[in-house]
Write a structure and sequence with these properties.
Chains A, B: ATP binds at residues 107, 233, 288, 292. Two copies of one chain form a homodimer. With 340 residues, chain A is an alpha/beta fold. In chain A, 31% of the residues lie in helices and 18% in strands. Chain A has a domain at 17-53 and 94-235 and 307-331: Carbamate kinase (3-Layer(aba) Sandwich), CATH 3.40.1160. The first copy, chain A, has helices spanning 2-8, 26-29, 40-54, 85-89, 111-117, 127-153, 181-188, 212-223, 288-301, 314-321; strands at residues 20-24, 100-104, 158-160, 169-171, 174-177, 192-196, 198-202, 206-210, 227-232, 252-255, 261-265, 305-310, 334-338. The first copy, chain A, has a nine-stranded mixed beta sheet, with helices on both faces. At the A-B interface, helix 4, helix 5, helix 6, strand 3 and helix 7 of A face helix 4, helix 5, helix 6, strand 3 and helix 7 of B.
């Protein structure tokens, strides 16, 4: 109901529809293979690009002073944060189009705790699963906190929103309840909701893991963003593992109204949608590329373009701006769109 | 509706009513005067007492091995956490009555950010208020994360639940919407929800601060716990600031059905309910003791005993266990109860 309201009043003073849902892939923002380690430079760069994409002024290239919104101490830094309240109060506005939603994966956070305990399989009568549920949530919400802070340092008014706390739940691992009203309220108030893959309650299994990709698909269905961007650690979807020197980047995939997909570019793979071992980030353990493609295909069928590209590149900046036309020969990444 | 269901089915296999709502006062668990600094020893002790109060076995005093549920790295500790999954999986159960809710204050977290920006006054068109909202939430959710971890290390299956994320909102600073269904679901699944004073959206003011004391009163009204405990840094409510050497501890306060309160013990102050400058923690900036007494009086009127006492003492342990009879001469603290 609330999301319909968001669509029905497109007037200038009414809430605008969501511009973009961004997935910050776990592989892009954490250091794989190192427990609970953030790739600080990659995260900082992704947040800076998000800010650029939100910016309402084209800018002359001169660095602007950013209104940092993380006024908390940083670990290991004894200095208290400095806040120039007078300067901030005098600003005319943020100058940002903040109608974005950020969803991030877990990367090297959460997987250890989830896999040691089998949270995804459910069964809260087991002390191991119950403890693992708590431990998994601690780990993924720690990452969420750090991502909210990184966005806030770039001047993006971000608010962390755990799906579990929002009351989202599943039934046999499929979303059963996922009220987006608080997300919509936050967007309307000018904040950028930051969600994440989370441990949630499941009607039949007691509990399971809800992945960031499923969350994105669900939000896209509810909120009809103009486009969806997946930032990862490789250039897009390949026809085989991207570590293979013969791997070919699939630049454009079309999805028909039955959900079947076919490769449009490169032309040499046209019509090929079987026997291609598509792969992006093999270490993404919540489904990997197959889940990602399937979720992306559902989004594309709605008429929403999906861009999958490498974080921290000129290509990711263009994707975040929605500046990827179908004949962009110089854009590196995968576009998944409806064939209609 | 959901809370009625919790009341209507008291059978052994049905959800039990909430036993206790505990306030971990900001003054007790943080170091006042030092920005964003946790009083680690006080927090650890409060969590250990909570575990003792939840324990279903009386215990012979021998230290039991605790099932720690924080499997994340700790800041500054390079070692990966060790998890004995086999031992955990072999446990018969937690042996804890987890029907508790924890709410904590902000102490030295959040106040700096909130007061520099005036978040409590509202007005999100102001860049300062918008930035302050984000900064305040970052600070208070950082503390929430640390409290959830401290509880989890004591084997308490805790889950962080920010009121903002739960969709709680106010209208002119009074609670307008505060759906507790996810809190109830979490309790039923055997988890201990951990809430906190938070920055929230306000229908009229755009935003404000919702204090932990107001949250406790609201939850007590919804969930009818057997008793409510406020843990603070002094022994209870005094007739004047507790730093005054002549301050007298008010041991028992009665609230009548009109909400008027009178001092029952000590006898020398009987009938005195005016001109007494009651005070507990003067540095508690979200209302101080006056708000606390008012909220406690509302709870007591419902027939729910409220215990206010000093964290980390034998008195706080007895309060958490609900072991405070009206004639306990050796219990140090303030009881607020209905006169009926």
């Amino acid at each position: 109901m609330a999301e319909e309201a968001a669509q029905e009043h497109p007037g200038p003073s009414a809430p605008r529809p969501v511009r973009c849902i961004v997935k910050l892939g776990g592989a892009a923002i954490t250091n794989k293979g190192e427990l609970e380690s953030i790739n600080e430079e990659s995260l900082r760069s992704a947040c800076a690009q998000l800010r650029q994409a939100m910016s309402e002024s084209e800018g002359d290239g001169a660095p602007e002073k950013v209104l940092g919104m993380d006024w908390s101490k940083r670990h290991g830094d004894p200095a208290d944060p400095a806040v120039d309240a007078e300067w901030i109060a005098g600003m005319a506005g943020l100058g940002l189009d903040t109608n974005f939603i950020v969803v991030h994966g877990a990367g090297s956070f959460g997987h250890f705790q989830a896999s040691r305990s089998g949270v995804h399989k459910g069964g809260l009568h087991s002390t191991l699963v119950k403890a693992g549920f708590v431990a998994t949530r601690i780990s993924v919400t720690s990452l969420n906190q750090e991502i909210v802070r990184a966005l806030a340092r770039e001047g993006i008014p971000s608010v962390g929103m755990s799906p579990f706390t929002c009351g989202w739940s599943t039934s046999q691992r499929k979303i059963a309840s996922a009220n987006a009203s608080q997300i919509i309220q936050s967007l309307h108030a000018g904040f950028v909701p930051v969600l994440h893959g989370d441990a949630v309650l499941d009607e039949l299994l007691d509990c399971t893991i809800l992945s960031g990709d499923v969350i994105i698909r669900h939000l896209a269905q509810l909120l009809s963003p103009k486009y969806v961007v997946f930032l990862t650690d490789v250039h897009g979807v390949y026809d085989r593992p991207p570590t293979d020197p013969n791997a070919v980047l699939l630049k454009e995939i079309e999805v028909d109204d039955k959900g079947s997909w076919s490769i449009v570019k490169p032309a040499l793979l046209q019509g090929n949608n079987k026997g291609v071992e598509i792969s992006v980030a093999a270490h993404d353990t919540t489904g990997g590329m197959e889940t990602k493609i399937l979720e992306a295909a559902v989004i594309a069928r709605l008429g929403i373009d999906v861009y999958i590209t490498k974080a921290g590149t000129e290509h990711s900046l263009r994707a975040l701006k929605g500046d990827v036309s179908s004949d962009s020969e110089d854009w590196l990444g995968t576009v998944i769109r409806s064939s209609k």
